[in-house]
Specification:
heterodimer, A: alpha+beta, about 35% helix, about 25% strand, B: 8-stranded antiparallel sheet, two-stranded antiparallel ribbon
Protein backbone atom coordinates (compact mmCIF):
# COMPACT_ATOMS: atom_id res chain seq x y z
CA UNK A 1 0.00 0.00 0.00
CA UNK A 2 1.24 3.46 -0.88
CA UNK A 3 1.33 5.68 2.21
CA UNK A 4 1.67 9.44 1.81
CA UNK A 5 2.02 12.17 4.39
CA UNK A 6 -0.13 15.26 3.79
CA UNK A 7 -0.46 18.54 5.64
CA UNK A 8 -3.84 20.14 6.20
CA UNK A 9 -5.34 21.18 2.86
CA UNK A 10 -2.75 19.31 0.79
CA UNK A 11 -4.15 16.98 -1.81
CA UNK A 12 -3.60 13.66 -3.55
CA UNK A 13 -4.60 13.04 -7.16
CA UNK A 14 -5.49 9.56 -8.43
CA UNK A 15 -5.67 8.88 -12.15
CA UNK A 16 -6.04 12.54 -13.08
CA UNK A 17 -9.65 13.03 -12.01
CA UNK A 18 -9.90 11.82 -8.41
CA UNK A 19 -8.88 14.42 -5.87
CA UNK A 20 -8.44 13.63 -2.19
CA UNK A 21 -8.08 16.44 0.33
CA UNK A 22 -7.16 16.24 3.99
CA UNK A 23 -9.78 18.49 5.54
CA UNK A 24 -9.48 18.09 9.29
CA UNK A 25 -8.04 15.98 12.07
CA UNK A 26 -9.89 15.73 15.35
CA UNK A 27 -8.65 13.30 17.95
CA UNK A 28 -8.79 9.83 16.37
CA UNK A 29 -10.86 11.00 13.39
CA UNK A 30 -9.71 12.26 10.02
CA UNK A 31 -12.06 14.14 7.69
CA UNK A 32 -11.27 13.52 4.06
CA UNK A 33 -12.70 15.34 1.05
CA UNK A 34 -13.08 13.32 -2.15
CA UNK A 35 -13.83 14.71 -5.61
CA UNK A 36 -14.50 11.94 -8.12
CA UNK A 37 -16.47 11.56 -11.37
CA UNK A 38 -20.14 10.67 -10.80
CA UNK A 39 -19.91 7.15 -12.21
CA UNK A 40 -17.34 6.18 -9.58
CA UNK A 41 -19.14 5.27 -6.41
CA UNK A 42 -17.42 6.58 -3.29
CA UNK A 43 -18.69 4.76 -0.21
CA UNK A 44 -17.79 3.93 3.34
CA UNK A 45 -16.30 0.47 3.22
CA UNK A 46 -18.59 -0.99 5.89
CA UNK A 47 -21.74 -0.05 3.92
CA UNK A 48 -20.47 -1.82 0.80
CA UNK A 49 -19.50 -4.78 2.93
CA UNK A 50 -23.06 -5.09 4.28
CA UNK A 51 -24.67 -4.96 0.84
CA UNK A 52 -22.13 -7.38 -0.58
CA UNK A 53 -22.66 -9.88 2.19
CA UNK A 54 -26.46 -9.69 1.79
CA UNK A 55 -26.00 -10.38 -1.93
CA UNK A 56 -23.82 -13.39 -1.18
CA UNK A 57 -26.35 -14.75 1.31
CA UNK A 58 -29.26 -14.21 -1.07
CA UNK A 59 -27.44 -16.20 -3.75
CA UNK A 60 -27.32 -19.12 -1.29
CA UNK A 61 -31.08 -19.30 -0.63
CA UNK A 62 -32.41 -22.79 -1.30
CA UNK A 63 -35.72 -23.53 -3.00
CA UNK A 64 -37.49 -25.33 -0.10
CA UNK A 65 -36.80 -22.38 2.24
CA UNK A 66 -38.06 -19.95 -0.39
CA UNK A 67 -41.26 -21.96 -0.87
CA UNK A 68 -41.83 -21.99 2.89
CA UNK A 69 -41.07 -18.25 3.11
CA UNK A 70 -43.63 -17.51 0.38
CA UNK A 71 -46.18 -19.64 2.24
CA UNK A 72 -45.49 -17.86 5.55
CA UNK A 73 -45.86 -14.45 3.92
CA UNK A 74 -49.13 -15.31 2.25
CA UNK A 75 -50.60 -16.89 5.40
CA UNK A 76 -49.31 -14.51 8.09
CA UNK A 77 -49.07 -11.43 5.93
CA UNK A 78 -46.03 -9.29 5.27
CA UNK A 79 -44.95 -6.67 7.75
CA UNK A 80 -46.22 -3.86 5.49
CA UNK A 81 -49.83 -4.86 6.17
CA UNK A 82 -49.61 -4.37 9.89
CA UNK A 83 -52.57 -2.40 11.22
CA UNK B 1 -32.19 -17.32 -26.53
CA UNK B 2 -31.48 -20.32 -24.34
CA UNK B 3 -29.71 -19.88 -21.01
CA UNK B 4 -28.34 -22.53 -18.70
CA UNK B 5 -29.20 -22.38 -15.02
CA UNK B 6 -28.26 -24.65 -12.15
CA UNK B 7 -31.58 -24.29 -10.36
CA UNK B 8 -34.02 -24.32 -13.25
CA UNK B 9 -32.22 -26.18 -16.03
CA UNK B 10 -32.22 -24.70 -19.53
CA UNK B 11 -34.52 -21.69 -19.90
CA UNK B 12 -35.79 -20.04 -23.04
CA UNK B 13 -35.51 -16.29 -22.52
CA UNK B 14 -36.75 -13.45 -24.69
CA UNK B 15 -33.65 -11.36 -25.45
CA UNK B 16 -35.61 -8.19 -24.86
CA UNK B 17 -36.16 -9.32 -21.27
CA UNK B 18 -32.45 -9.44 -20.48
CA UNK B 19 -31.43 -6.82 -17.93
CA UNK B 20 -28.02 -5.26 -18.36
CA UNK B 21 -26.12 -4.22 -15.22
CA UNK B 22 -23.02 -2.32 -16.38
CA UNK B 23 -21.66 -2.31 -12.81
CA UNK B 24 -23.00 -5.71 -11.78
CA UNK B 25 -24.21 -6.57 -8.30
CA UNK B 26 -21.90 -5.64 -5.42
CA UNK B 27 -19.51 -8.51 -4.87
CA UNK B 28 -20.37 -9.92 -8.31
CA UNK B 29 -19.25 -6.98 -10.47
CA UNK B 30 -18.09 -9.13 -13.37
CA UNK B 31 -21.57 -10.56 -13.95
CA UNK B 32 -23.56 -8.09 -16.04
CA UNK B 33 -26.65 -9.77 -17.50
CA UNK B 34 -29.71 -11.00 -15.65
CA UNK B 35 -33.29 -12.09 -16.13
CA UNK B 36 -36.05 -11.76 -13.57
CA UNK B 37 -38.97 -14.12 -13.25
CA UNK B 38 -41.59 -14.79 -10.59
CA UNK B 39 -40.82 -17.48 -8.05
CA UNK B 40 -44.39 -18.80 -8.30
CA UNK B 41 -47.78 -17.48 -9.21
CA UNK B 42 -48.82 -16.85 -5.60
CA UNK B 43 -45.39 -15.83 -4.29
CA UNK B 44 -44.17 -12.29 -3.61
CA UNK B 45 -40.62 -13.30 -4.59
CA UNK B 46 -38.73 -13.20 -7.87
CA UNK B 47 -35.58 -14.93 -8.98
CA UNK B 48 -32.91 -12.63 -10.36
CA UNK B 49 -30.96 -15.13 -12.41
CA UNK B 50 -27.60 -14.48 -14.05
CA UNK B 51 -27.56 -15.13 -17.78
CA UNK B 52 -23.82 -15.82 -17.81
CA UNK B 53 -23.28 -17.75 -14.58
CA UNK B 54 -25.71 -20.69 -14.37
CA UNK B 55 -25.30 -21.06 -10.61
CA UNK B 56 -25.89 -17.43 -9.67
CA UNK B 57 -29.42 -16.36 -8.75
CA UNK B 58 -30.60 -13.87 -6.16
CA UNK B 59 -34.01 -13.73 -4.50
CA UNK B 60 -35.70 -10.34 -4.67
CA UNK B 61 -39.04 -8.79 -3.84
CA UNK B 62 -40.78 -5.43 -3.94
CA UNK B 63 -39.79 -3.17 -1.05
CA UNK B 64 -43.28 -1.67 -1.04
CA UNK B 65 -44.79 -4.98 0.00
CA UNK B 66 -43.12 -4.72 3.39
CA UNK B 67 -42.61 -0.97 3.68
CA UNK B 68 -45.20 0.95 1.64
CA UNK B 69 -43.55 4.28 2.51
CA UNK B 70 -40.11 3.13 1.27
CA UNK B 71 -38.37 5.99 -0.52
CA UNK B 72 -35.15 6.22 -2.46
CA UNK B 73 -33.37 9.25 -3.83
CA UNK B 74 -32.60 8.43 -7.46
CA UNK B 75 -30.45 11.48 -8.17
CA UNK B 76 -27.04 9.76 -7.82
CA UNK B 77 -28.16 6.68 -9.71
CA UNK B 78 -29.50 8.70 -12.64
CA UNK B 79 -26.19 10.52 -12.83
CA UNK B 80 -24.09 7.39 -12.51
CA UNK B 81 -26.09 5.58 -15.22
CA UNK B 82 -26.53 8.69 -17.39
CA UNK B 83 -30.29 8.03 -17.41
CA UNK B 84 -32.75 10.78 -18.14
CA UNK B 85 -35.11 11.89 -15.42
CA UNK B 86 -38.65 11.51 -16.71
CA UNK B 87 -40.22 13.19 -13.71
CA UNK B 88 -43.49 11.66 -12.62
CA UNK B 89 -43.69 9.47 -15.70
CA UNK B 90 -41.25 7.09 -14.10
CA UNK B 91 -39.92 4.13 -16.08
CA UNK B 92 -38.25 2.61 -13.04
CA UNK B 93 -38.87 -0.46 -10.92
CA UNK B 94 -37.33 -1.12 -7.52
CA UNK B 95 -36.53 -4.48 -5.97
CA UNK B 96 -34.74 -5.45 -2.78
CA UNK B 97 -32.48 -8.43 -2.18
CA UNK B 98 -33.99 -11.07 0.12
CA UNK B 99 -32.19 -13.37 2.53
CA UNK B 100 -33.60 -16.54 3.97
CA UNK B 101 -31.36 -18.21 6.55
CA UNK B 102 -31.05 -21.91 5.80
CA UNK B 103 -33.80 -23.84 7.57
CA UNK B 104 -35.28 -20.70 9.16
CA UNK B 105 -37.59 -19.13 6.57
CA UNK B 106 -39.43 -17.23 9.31
CA UNK B 107 -36.25 -15.19 9.76
CA UNK B 108 -36.30 -13.89 6.18
CA UNK B 109 -35.08 -10.33 5.72
CA UNK B 110 -34.73 -7.79 2.93
CA UNK B 111 -31.79 -5.50 2.36
CA UNK B 112 -33.28 -2.02 2.13
CA UNK B 113 -29.95 -0.19 1.72
CA UNK B 114 -28.96 -1.90 -1.55
CA UNK B 115 -32.04 -1.89 -3.80
CA UNK B 116 -31.90 -2.83 -7.46
CA UNK B 117 -33.19 -0.07 -9.72
CA UNK B 118 -34.36 -1.22 -13.15
CA UNK B 119 -34.93 1.19 -16.01
CA UNK B 120 -37.63 -0.55 -18.03
CA UNK B 121 -37.11 1.75 -21.04
CA UNK B 122 -33.58 0.57 -21.76
CA UNK B 123 -33.52 -2.66 -19.69
CA UNK B 124 -30.56 -1.48 -17.66
CA UNK B 125 -30.24 -1.84 -13.92
CA UNK B 126 -28.01 -0.75 -11.09
CA UNK B 127 -27.68 -1.74 -7.45
CA UNK B 128 -27.86 1.40 -5.36
CA UNK B 129 -25.89 2.09 -2.21
CA UNK B 130 -28.00 4.07 0.25
CA UNK B 131 -25.24 5.29 2.51
CA UNK B 132 -27.11 7.70 4.75
CA UNK B 133 -30.54 6.09 4.74
CA UNK B 134 -32.62 5.24 7.80
CA UNK B 135 -33.20 1.72 6.49
CA UNK B 136 -31.87 -1.62 7.63
CA UNK B 137 -29.90 -4.14 5.58
CA UNK B 138 -31.75 -6.90 7.45
CA UNK B 139 -35.34 -5.74 7.57
CA UNK B 140 -37.58 -8.60 8.78
CA UNK B 141 -40.29 -9.43 6.24
CA UNK B 142 -42.69 -11.23 8.53
CA UNK B 143 -44.89 -9.57 11.09
CA UNK B 144 -43.20 -9.96 14.45
CA UNK B 145 -45.65 -11.52 16.91
Amino acid sequence: MLILTRKLGEQIVIGGDILITRVEIKGSQVRIGIDAPGHLGVYRQEILEKIQSENVRSAEVIAPDLAEAAFLLSSKGPRGNEP
Amino acid sequence: MKIETTRFGALEVDEKKIIDMPYGMLGFQEIKRFVMFPHREDSPFYWYQSVDDPSLAFVVTSPFLVLPEYQVDLKDALKKMAWEDHGSETPFELYVVVNIPKGSPEKMTANLIGPILINIRNSQAVQLVLADSPYSHRFPLLKQN
